[in-house]
Amino acid sequence: MDRKNVYASIDRERYYQDLKWGTIDDHPHEVGAWITLMRKLLNDAEEAWASRNSDQPALAEIRKVIAVGVACGEQHGLPGRSPHNL
Known about the structure:
- The protein has three helices and no strands.
- It has helices at 3-21, 31-51, 56-76.
- The model has no long low-confidence stretch (mean pLDDT 95).
C-alpha cells in the first residue's frame, strides 16, 4: 500500500472517531490522556497480533493508534522536524 492510501485510511479512521466519540472540540484531552489512549490501543494491537494467525486485526488496531495520535496533534499541534535533522 502506498503512503497516499495509508493516509486515506487514517483520515477515514479520524472521521469515524469523530462520529463515534464526538469532535476534539466536544471532548478535548490533555496530552497525557492521548498517550494513555494510544498505549491502550497499542496493547490491543499487540494482543490481536499475538492471539491470531493474521496481521490484519493488529493492523486495524494500529490504524486506530495512529488516528488517535493525529487527533492529539490536531488539538495540541506538533513540532515540525527541523530540516537540519533529516
